[in-house]
Design brief:
The complex is a heterodimer. Chain A is mostly beta strands. Chain A has strands at 4-7, 10-13, 19-25, 33-38, 45-49, 53-54, 62-67, 70-75, 84-90, 97-98, 102-106. In chain A, strands 2, 4, 5, 6, 9, 10 and 11 form a 7-stranded mixed sheet that branches. A 4-stranded antiparallel sheet of chain A has the order 1-3-8-7, with no helix packed on it. Chain B contains no helices and 11 strands. Chain B is mainly β. In chain B, a hairpin with a 6-residue loop joins strand 5 and strand 6. Chain B has strands at residues 3-7, 10-12, 18-25, 34-39, 45-51, 58-60, 68-73, 78-83, 92-99, 108-111, 115-119. The chains are: A mainly beta, B mainly beta. At the A-B interface, strand 4, strand 5, strand 9 and strand 10 of A face strand 5 and strand 10 of B.
Amino acid sequence: EIVLTQSPATLSLSPGERATLSCRASQSVTKYLAWYQQKPGQAPRLLIYDASNRATGIPARFSGSGSGTDFTLTISSLEPEDSAVYYCHQRIAWPYTFGPGTKLEIK
Amino acid sequence: EVQLVESGGGLVQPGGSLRLSCAASGFTFSRYWMGWVRQAPRRGLEWVASIKHDGTEKQYGESVKHRFSISRDSAHNSLYLQMDSLRVEDTAVYYCARVVLPLDTGAFHIWGQGTLVTVSS
């Protein structure tokens, strides 16, 4: 199975700062990587699919990049409501796998 | 409005069975791959199973293979997860999810609110 590793595990930043979250795959997933945001008590929310496509209704401050084994989710200017856990997910091969998550805290 | 609503969760003893249902509305159910994703308490997301838009292909995570069965009924716009031989480690919130694009495996775009399954004696 493809193992996804996310870094950092926790990130603490202030409103207006830029956040850079990383996801690394144990083998190439070409472009088939997605990013989700999950807040406590809520279902996950799709942010980015196929590495760089923003899902419907997602603010432009969220962007995704990368291919192969290395991917990045960037939040250009943090808002207080961006506090959440962010997961990456590959769908190029069964079994689908998720990364362990990055917890983003807004100071 | 595009919506998924799960039901069927609850408390079950180890070795028991449970059937989860997911009612879909607001989109053409028969055109989308669907899946189940679970989240154990205070843990991350784990993909459980997926089923092709026409029901002809099913995939399972290793931890549930041969115990869980995914199915769908397009006449009733419903997705199901039959869970047998349940274990304590199957305790989780189970989410029903729809992929982002029709006729494609895809990332999970639309999610239900989740239903809690607790396996305990």
